[in-house]
Write a structure and sequence with these properties.
Layout: E1 3-4, E2 9-10, E3 15-16, E4 21-22, E5 27-28, E6 33-34, E7 39-40, E8 45-46, E9 50-52, E10 57-58, E11 63-66, E12 79-82, E13 87-88, E14 93-95, E15 103-106, E16 111-112, E17 117-118, E18 123-124, E19 129-130, E20 135-136, E21 141-142, E22 147-148, E23 153-154, E24 159-160, E25 165-166, E26 171-172, E27 180-183, E28 188-192, H1 194-199, H2 204-217, H3 222-232, H4 237-248
Parallel strand pairs: 1-4, 2-5, 3-6, 4-7, 5-8, 6-9, 7-10, 8-11, 9-12, 10-13, 11-14, 12-15, 13-16, 14-17, 15-18, 16-19, 17-20, 18-21, 19-22, 20-23, 21-24, 22-25, 23-26, 25-27
Antiparallel strand pairs: 27-28
Helix pairs in contact: 2-3, 2-4, 3-4
């Protein structure tokens, strides 16, 4: 049975699962789906097009599936999809998609701290930590297990690789390749994310291979670096991820 405050509004067409807690002054619009065991603290807004999984907690002032802040948006039907076991803190704003991709996606087990903005058509993976007041412009992609500190600004269409650590206050308009620390001004490669990789269970051999891959990747041009990684290092999931990330980058990678 759902616990819905008498001071909350739930549209008759909203689809609610079981055992949700909906606090006072919450607003749940039509064309929304809410799974099971979610907690909406007071003043949470679930806008048109939200698709929310199970076991999420939304804190005061969060706005989910908000109308995109994109002048090209013409009112087309679009979605905002949120997975399971996420913590969406105070005043987080997540836009729904546009005609470009149609859906903004947040994965599972993510922590979005106070004041985070996720713009239209972003795709955020699993097990992410996003610091206070960080802002993602439209169509940013963040791979699994990334940690992005507070007040970071990501340019539209950028991709952030998995297992990275981005220092607070950074701003970037190029892709951030996996396994690294990015920081300083202008934002650039500051070594591999050694502590983070150890915490995630990477072996000394895997970490050494990642280090060597970047040593080669950043020698000469990007094409030359990719060729050296392929020629001089064994093919493993880690080296293939680094190389494929660099090869597919549309904006270029941080160096």
């Amino acid at each position: 049975m759902n616990q819905i405050s008498p001071m909350a509004f739930v549209h008759p067409d909203a689809q609610l699962g079981d055992n949700n807690i909906i606090g006072p002054f919450c607003y749940i619009d039509r064309n929304t789906v809410l799974g099971d065991n979610n907690v909406l603290q007071n003043g949470v807004t679930i806008n048109y097009g939200a698709r929310i999984g199970n076991n999420n907690e939304f804190f005061v002032g969060a706005s989910i599936a908000a109308k995109p802040q994109d002048l090209k948006f013409k009112g087309e039907d679009s979605l905002c999809q949120i997975g399971d076991f996420n913590s969406i803190r105070e005043n987080v704003n997540i836009s729904r998609g546009t005609a470009s991709k149609g859906t903004t996606i947040i994965g599972n087990h993510c922590l979005l701290m106070e004041g985070v903005h996720v713009a239209h058509d972003c795709v955020l993976g699993n097990n992410l930590i996003i610091g206070n007041s960080t802002k993602f412009a439209g169509e940013v992609v963040v791979d699994d297990n990334a940690i992005i500190s507070a007040s970071v600004l990501a340019h539209q269409f950028c991709r952030v690789g998995g297992y990275v650590m981005i220092q607070g206050g950074c701003r970037f308009s190029m892709d951030v390749p996996p396994y690294i620390i990015a920081g300083k001004e202008p934002t650039h490669y500051c070594g591999i994310n050694l502590i983070g990789l150890r915490r995630r269970g990477f072996t000394a051999e895997q970490i050494s291979l990642i280090h060597n891959a970047y040593r080669l990747l950043y020698t000469g041009t990007l094409a030359e670096g990719i060729a050296r990684v392929r020629a001089e290092l064994p093919s493993t999931p880690e080296t293939e991820y680094i190389v494929s990330f660099a090869e597919s980058s549309q904006r270029g990678i941080l160096r």
